[in-house]
């Protein structure tokens, strides 16, 4: 049975122009998804009205007004977007103080462009969308892009624990092994497919003259202060070492996790408690506690076969 709509966003009727397909979720249950511009959204979730209708959202995002000081943090889920978004906010503020709202308040999937009208500049957006959904003006006006990567074994591990906790996209009985096989067999041309996501970003960055900083989660863990310094210089707010160390301290996983519970999530899609749950271990190499030897070999072979010669030089341990 369809769940009643509880959010503030209208979800219009499905028409013959829409692409709706039935896909297998991890663990084999079938679900219907709506596909708009390479993004795949579960209809049962969409119908709750807690996020905007992508058929309205994506075209309006593409036409959104942007500025050269806008910052877009773009990453596949679980690469550390919460961490980097908060650090950027503190750098700009010039104080190791948490922003009043969670990073979800500026997550492009969760808001219509008009909801950003009161955000002071420089605005720091974040998204898991592939570049086709981004504002055209972000490229034209040379906004700043921060592309965040993480080794895919830790991404999948983190994603699994996220899904178990939230029961999002799978039922609670789904095992790790079912989840991993689902990931390995997702060859759809949509943003949830990590290979497709990276391919689209590589195409986008190589065919546009962008102001872009590429970072990865592992380097942030190895030397947070030097990454913070790069970040600060890139966004045009260089800060001294004392302040960077204060930001590092304030942005430790446990402190951020606690702070999340105290502040407005900034969206109807998730509440503060659910945002806080996204902070888990925050380490490099937790995949070793998850993958069997055979699964690791299968994953390595899959990576080799699907990376299309791309070498993102991931660090699997530090
Ligand atoms: P784990 O599940 O491996 O712990 P995102 O912010 O993109 O949703 O990524 C979530 C991942 O980043 C989770 O990874 C989370 O614990 C980790 N993370 C979040 N904040 C962090 C922080 N301040 N320091 C280190 N890792 C952090």
UniProtKB/TrEMBL annotation:
Domain (Sulfotransferase) ranges: 68-309
Keywords of the record: Transferase
Catalytic activity, EC: 2.8.2.-
Molecular-function GO terms, alphabetical: sulfotransferase activity
PANTHER family documented for this protein: SULFOTRANSFERASE SULT
SUPFAM superfamilies membership: P-loop containing nucleoside triphosphate hydrolases
UniProt name for this protein: SULT6B1
Family: Belongs to the sulfotransferase 1 family.
The keyword Acyltransferase is annotated on this UniProt entry: no
Pfam families, per the entry: Sulfotransfer_1
Domain of life: Eukaryota
Enzyme class: transferase
């Amino acid at each position: 049975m369809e769940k009643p709509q509880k959010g503030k966003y209208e979800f219009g009727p499905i028409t013959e122009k829409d692409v709706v397909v039935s896909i297998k979720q991890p663990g084999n249950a079938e679900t219907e998804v709506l596909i708009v511009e390479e993004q795949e959204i579960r209809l049962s979730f969409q119908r709750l009205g807690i996020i905007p209708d992508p058929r309205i959202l994506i075209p309006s995002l593409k036409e959104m007004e942007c500025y050269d000081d806008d910052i877009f943090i773009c990453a596949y889920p679980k690469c550390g977007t919460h961490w980097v978004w908060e650090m950027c906010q503190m750098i700009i503020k010039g104080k190791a103080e948490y922003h009043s709202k969670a990073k979800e308040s500026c997550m492009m999937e969760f808001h219509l462009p008009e909801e950003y009208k009161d955000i002071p500049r420089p605005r720091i957006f974040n998204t898991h969308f592939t570049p086709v959904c981004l504002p055209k003006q972000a490229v034209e006006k040379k906004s700043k892009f921060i592309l965040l990567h993480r080794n895919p074994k830790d991404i999948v591990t983190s994603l699994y624990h996220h899904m178990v906790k939230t029961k999002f996209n799978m039922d609670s009985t789904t095992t790790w092994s079912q989840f991993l096989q689902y990931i390995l067999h997702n060859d759809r041309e949509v943003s949830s497919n990590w290979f497709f996501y990276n391919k689209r970003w590589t195409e986008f960055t190589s065919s546009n003259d962008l102001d872009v900083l590429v970072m990865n989660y592992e380097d942030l863990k190895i030397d947070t202060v030097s990454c913070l310094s790069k970040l600060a210089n890139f966004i045009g707010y260089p800060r001294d070492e004392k302040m960077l160390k204060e930001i590092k301290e304030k942005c430790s996983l446990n402190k951020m996790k606690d702070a999340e519970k105290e502040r407005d999530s900034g969206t109807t899609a998730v509440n503060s408690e659910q945002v806080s749950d996204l902070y888990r271990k925050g380490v490099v190499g937790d995949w070793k506690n998850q993958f069997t030897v055979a699964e690791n070999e299968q994953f390595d072979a899959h990576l080799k076969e699907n990376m299309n010669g791309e070498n993102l030089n991931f660090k699997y341990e530090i």
